[in-house]
């Protein structure tokens, strides 16, 4: 019984940063009745064979010479996926030949890796399914993918902190706290990419940008400048004696504005002279 | 040793977790000296050490299909039996064994001179399916050795029926005791061996799970809403889903409101919360669970189908496998793959649910098919309408020959509480630029 490959939720950035492929081992070949999928290993240690993405299709070109081969770009908040469909994916090819860009689409596809003799490998998707989607689905997909990506990053962080004393060894017994299906990929990622805390933080901020980009956050404030939002907050909370900085932070936090943003907004408001500090830790708006 | 063999050694070390790297290197070197091709050499090393290092398992972790495992157990009971095997009369030994995690039946194909209560170490045993559950099989190549009497808990302790939450009931449980609320109950008239009986069927729940139950005795005073404490109920397995059987000899007490339990009827009589698919797949069968995910594929065989009026099988070209040419009954169904990024599962929808999900009735779908009555039109239409979309389903999973299947009882479009999830995510990303 061959298990169906999971359709991973993965941002374009994580996928396109990948270059190592994992071919199945002899042990698997012996045990799996000849069905041995190949995986692309991402820098966060995800072993990807199939993906599910929802994004915006922005370009479609016919790059075929003899027969039609369609190349499309599907964009998510972190970058773009390249999708190729030719004569062996007739339904996807028909879809791509007639789709009006830009449009929301969902793609279920297998990851393909082309390694040219020179230069970096080219990662593309071979669609099994490609269909029209809508904005709500895309937003939901971004949140799903953010959650799952963050789970992977956190597992990786945990593993790094466990193996700190001995980064070369992946056999530290504490690894048992991380499920083996994850830890194997993580070890491989450390070996292949030397992934460290820097990359994880880079990816964390990509995830954060993706979440913020779909503009679900404080949608009531639309795309107002953060300074304006904080200023309004100050006016709302001010009882004539100014606002305690801690109170401001906790209210801002409850409205999805983080500490850093508040801090920089307050500094800029102070600089602009729109508020002042009558006492340390008390901010008072000048209205 | 030559550098170029490093990846192979790496692989072998990984595969044989408990054998030291140097041992593997020496073995490989020796075989290569004999000019054995590398693939053959690797294969024989794997074979050699996998038997040397049987995995010591607890009874609770046994899975059907396990091979070469070791167990440290006490024999609870053992009987000699003569069975007819391909025309020859063979003596086998069967009974039950247990460790502190659970108990399990066993069959030995070789002579054992053991008595109930003996503590033994069994090596190189396998696990096969017998009456839908795991059974330890001791073969000619298995080894059985006696252990110190004090090595395991006493037999009286091991044969005590475990008190379990419903969510913990699994393959290794033959009898359990528990406390649960009855959330569904109905009477059924059945005919057993020529006698008409009324039995009770229903569903019990605690805070961990829900399970179907059957009672062969009329439970006086028990109805929906009752919380019962039962002892020594037998557990049977069907397609990986346990069910609880009560009869005259099972003690069943109604729990009054004065007892403080970790749940109430109201708290467990709620729709199940959606679980990650990955968690659902870890169990062979689950009763009454919810999952949410994306439809990543609508499988062939979905759409408008015809069934045999005699046996309800799906038929092709008006021909049934067992009833020849018949006038088929039209029906609609959808088989889809649901995936949430942690796992994927085949979900079956009956006509009623298919009509809801697809948004067209059977009659409307038939009119799509036009004169040629081409079912592919409906299938293609379903694919383009459904693929990629979010779907929530509630129902049972069961293990059939080609993996785990989810039979849905209700469907919905997951509600989008994105704001809440965004806040949680931003909290996790606190301090990230």
From TrEMBL, chain A:
Gene Ontology molecular function: DNA binding
Origin superkingdom: Archaea
Stored InterPro entries: WH-like_DNA-bd_sf (IPR036388)
Record key words, sorted: DNA-binding
Protein name listed in UniProt: DNA-binding protein
Protein's organism: Methanococcoides methylutens
From TrEMBL, chain B:
TM spans (from-to): none
Keywords: DNA-binding
GO annotation, biological process: double-strand break repair via homologous recombination; response to ionizing radiation
Gene3D superfamilies (alphabetical): Nucleic acid-binding proteins (2.40.50.140)
Top-level taxonomic group: Archaea
Keyword DNA-binding: yes
Coiled coil: none
One GO molecular-function entry: DNA binding
InterPro entries hit by this protein: NA-bd_OB-fold (IPR012340), SOSS-B (IPR051231)
NCBIfam families: PRK07218.1 (NF005554)
Protein name as it appears in the record: Replication protein A
Organism, as annotated: Methanococcoides methylutens
Taxonomic classification: Archaea, Methanobacteriati, Methanobacteriota, Stenosarchaea group, Methanomicrobia
């Amino acid at each position: 019984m061959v298990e169906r490959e999971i359709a991973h939720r993965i941002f374009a950035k994580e996928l396109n940063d990948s270059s190592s492929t994992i071919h199945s081992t002899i042990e698997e070949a012996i045990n799996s009745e000849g069905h041995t999928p190949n995986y692309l290993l991402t820098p966060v240690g995800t072993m990807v064979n199939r993906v599910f993405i929802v994004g915006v299709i922005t370009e479609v070109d016919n790059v075929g010479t003899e027969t039609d081969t369609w190349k499309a770009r599907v964009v998510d908040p972190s970058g773009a996926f390249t999708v190729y469909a030719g004569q062996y994916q007739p339904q996807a090819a028909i879809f791509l030949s007639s789709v009006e860009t830009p449009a929301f689409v969902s793609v279920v596809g297998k990851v393909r890796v082309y390694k040219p003799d020179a230069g970096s490998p080219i990662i593309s998707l071979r669609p099994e399914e490609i269909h029209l989607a809508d904005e709500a689905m895309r937003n939901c997909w971004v949140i799903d993918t953010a959650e799952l990506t963050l789970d992977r990053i956190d597992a990786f962080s945990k593993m790094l902190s466990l193996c700190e004393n001995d980064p070369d060894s992946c056999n530290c017994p504490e690894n048992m706290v991380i499920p083996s299906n994850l830890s194997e990929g993580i070890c491989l990622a450390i070996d292949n990419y030397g992934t460290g805390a820097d990359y994880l933080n880079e990816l964390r901020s990509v995830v954060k940008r993706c979440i913020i980009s779909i503009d679900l956050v404080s949608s009531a404030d639309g795309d107002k400048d953060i300074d304006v939002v904080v200023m309004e907050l100050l006016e709302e909370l001010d009882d004539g004696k100014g606002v305690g900085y801690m109170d401001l932070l906790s209210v801002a936090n409850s409205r999805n504005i983080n500490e850093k943003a508040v801090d920089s907004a307050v500094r800029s408001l102070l600089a602009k002279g729109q508020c002042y500090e009558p006492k340390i830790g008390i901010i008072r708006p000048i209205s | 040793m030559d550098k170029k063999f490093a990846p192979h050694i790496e692989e072998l070390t990984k595969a044989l977790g408990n054998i030291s790297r140097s041992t593997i290197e020496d073995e490989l070197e020796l075989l290569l000296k004999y000019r054995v091709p590398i693939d053959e050499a690797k294969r024989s090393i794997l074979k050699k050490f996998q038997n040397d290092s049987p995995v010591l398992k607890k009874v609770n972790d046994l899975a059907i299909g396990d091979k070469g495992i070791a167990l440290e157990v006490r024999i609870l009971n053992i009987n000699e039996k003569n069975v007819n095997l391909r025309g020859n009369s063979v003596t086998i030994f069967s009974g039950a064994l247990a460790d502190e995690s659970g108990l399990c039946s066993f069959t030995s194909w070789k002579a054992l001179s053991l008595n109930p209560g003996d503590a033994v170490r069994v090596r190189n045993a396998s696990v096969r399916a017998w009456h839908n559950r795991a059974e330890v099989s001791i073969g000619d190549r298995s080894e059985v050795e006696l252990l110190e009497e004090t090595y395991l808990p006493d037999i009286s302790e091991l044969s005590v029926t475990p008190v379990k939450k419903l969510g913990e009931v699994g393959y290794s449980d033959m009898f359990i005791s528990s406390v649960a609320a009855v959330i569904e109950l109905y009477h059924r008239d059945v005919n057993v061996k020529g006698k008409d009986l009324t039995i009770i069927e229903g569903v019990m729940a605690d805070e961990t799970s829900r399970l179907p139950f059957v009672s062969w005795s009329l439970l006086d005073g028990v109805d929906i809403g009752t919380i019962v404490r039962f002892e020594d109920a037998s557990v049977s397995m069907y397609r990986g889903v346990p069910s609880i059987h009560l009869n005259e000899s099972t003690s069943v007490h109604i729990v009054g409101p004065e007892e403080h339990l970790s749940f109430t009827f109201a708290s467990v009589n709620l729709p199940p919360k959606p679980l990650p698919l990955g968690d659902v797949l870890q169990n062979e069968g689950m009763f009454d669970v919810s999952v949410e995910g994306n439809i990543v594929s609508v499988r062939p065989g979905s759409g408008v189908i015809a069934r045999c009026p005699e046996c309800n099988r799906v038929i092709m070209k008006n021909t049934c496998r067992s009833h020849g040419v018949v006038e088929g009954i039209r029906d609609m169904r959808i088989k889809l793959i649901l995936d949430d990024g942690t796992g994927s599962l085949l979900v079956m929808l009956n006509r009623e649910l298919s009509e809801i999900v697809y948004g067209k009735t059977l009659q409307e779908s038939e009119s799509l098919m036009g004169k040629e009555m081409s079912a592919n039109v409906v299938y293609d239409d379903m694919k383009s309408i459904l693929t990629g979309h979010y779907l929530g389903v509630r129902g049972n999973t069961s293990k059939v020959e080609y993996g785990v299947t989810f039979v849905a009882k209700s469907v919905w479009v997951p509600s989008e509480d994105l704001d809440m999830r965004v806040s949680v995510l931003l909290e996790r990303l606190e301090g990230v630029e």
